[in-house]
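Lab manual, section 2.4: Encoding a predicted structure.

Procedure: take the sequence of the chain (272 residues), apply the prediction step described in section 2.3, and record the output as structure tokens. A sample record is shown.
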Amino acid sequence: MGFYNSMRHVIKASGEIQYFDSKKIFNTVTEAGASKKLAIGTVKLIKEKYYKGITTKEILNLILENLKKEPGVAQRYNLKKAIMNLGPSGFPFEHYFARILDKHGYQTKVDNNIKGKRILHEVDIIAKKDNISYMIECKYHNETGTNTKLHPALYTYARFLDIGKFNTPWLATNTKCVDDAVEYAKGVNMKITSWTYPQKESLRILIESKALYPITSISLIDSKTKESLFLNNIVLATDLLKYTPKQISKITGLGAFQISQIIKEVKEICKL
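Recorded output:
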């Protein structure tokens, strides 16, 4: 790229200072489906706009604006933010992750109350695949710079032990897990799915490999429409393709033109 050494540091949302890597921008932009020309142009733009003390949020905004030049690329690139826009309660994330697992061959059931040895437990997701049963705890964050710490891993395993009815405990989160949580999970044979872990089956990979983008990836959908869709169990962007425009209008109150534009955007995001 020719400018790796000219951009030394950026400030993350957590306040941490990290070394800037232009190659990472190029790679992630192309992974989102951008052409080589757009990827090179995006890297060049960041070089021009860079100043000492620039934040990763500012860089992200510059990237997203530039990626709008090609349909669907900006939405795919901004997947992490789309997941954080699912909702503050975390409730939609449980349903969203269950839908992801369904598409990867699991049988799932959401929102479960299961009696343990001493108390009743609320289990987010029960899953089964290849005769292995999983008890899944979802830890959702809707703010950037927030990592999932050790404590959720500890209480997920404690809950698993008290229930005693499953083969494997599983912690799923939409952010990064701290190293202690990952190491603890390895020691007790607990699965972890986080934004970047494990490398070949991270949350990002599970989504992108089958174009399982949430409805919050769609830029034309506002908060009110999002809630209406969630209430009707419409979680994936591609779910909308199962409905007629008339049915979508009845659910959301949107007009025919708005719906046609949304469907067009869905197809662009999912490369259909």
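Check your result against the sample. Confidence is low (pLDDT under 50) at residues 1-7.
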